Every structure is written in structure tokens, then in C-alpha cells.
Amino acid sequence: MAEGFLMEVCVDSVESAINAERGGAGRLELCSSLLEGGLTPSLGLLQIVKQYVKIPVYVMIRPRGGDFLYSDREVEVMRKDVELMKSHGADGLVLGALTEDGRVDAELCMEFLAAARPLPVTFHRAFDMVHDPAVALETLVSLGFQRVLTSGCDTSALEGLPVIKRLIDQEAASQRGTCREF
């Protein structure tokens, strides 16, 4: 593996987790329902995956497919999932929430970040639905997210490469260096 390069692989089974680690993954994103963009996996899946792999396992916190606007009851489920995944061995969490006008839901994300401490938290592909990626990145950095999963607000990372490059340059120019991974 090249220095500075970490391969993270989305997995949804014990077998895919083992195979990803064998194939050189340095971190896993554990989900269920990858066809829906990834949903919160079961506690059983997390616990068994942790028995078979040695690399960090970040767990998706997302109660359903579709948009990233959550009802009060869905937020309640997400709070409980954060608590349970944290207490059952997750090495990090992957989550995100937006407002109706396409901004990061800073208030809700701040609540989730506080609940997740001391675990690192990645903002997931909800980022690709934001109205203004540059503003969204500033919000995420100010909240304390260290990673952003994005395809550059396009159908693939290759097609979104110009946006990804602008975001990396934006973060580098700020000289904060707090959001280190895209």
C-alpha cells in the first residue's frame, strides 16, 4: 500500500469484510442494504465482523434509504444506533443529515458527533446532495468531521473529480488540515 493511501471498502457481510481485508483494505465501512446506498447493519453483523478482521470497522448510521431528511422518530432510532454501535465495538461511525434547502443539518450532526465521542465520524454521501459543496465542507470541518465520502456531487468519483479537487484545494488553502480524507 502506498504511503498516504488507505483503501476503505464498503461491506455488508462477514465474507465481504474478510475478503476486503485480505485484498488490502485498511478500513471497512460496514452497512446493510448496499443497493439502497447503505443502511445501519445489525449488531450481530458488527460483532461477528469484529471477530474476523483486525482492521478498523466504521459503521453506517442510516435508518432508511432515500433522502437525508429525518423525522423525529428516525432521529431517535439514529441516536440509539450511535449508542449501541459505539458500545459494541465500532471503531468509527459514518452518518449525515441535511436540511430541506440542501445544507448540512449542523444542529443534528453536532448532536450525533457529541454522542459518538470519542469515535471518529465520517460524513457520508449525503454530501453529494448538498446545494453548495464548498459551504458544506466548511460546515463539516467546523463541526469536527474528519472525513467526507463524496463522488464530487456526481454519479461517480471519476466524473466528480473536478469538484473533489476543488474541495481538497479549499481545505489545503485553509491550512487547518482538519478534514484529511475525501
Automatic annotation (TrEMBL):
GO molecular function ontology, one term from the record: copper ion binding
Pfam family membership, one: CutC
Domain of life according to the entry: Eukaryota
Coiled coil: none
Protein family according to the UniProt entry: Belongs to the CutC family.
HAMAP family named among the record's database cross-references: CutC (MF_00795)
Name under which the protein is recorded: Copper homeostasis protein cutC homolog
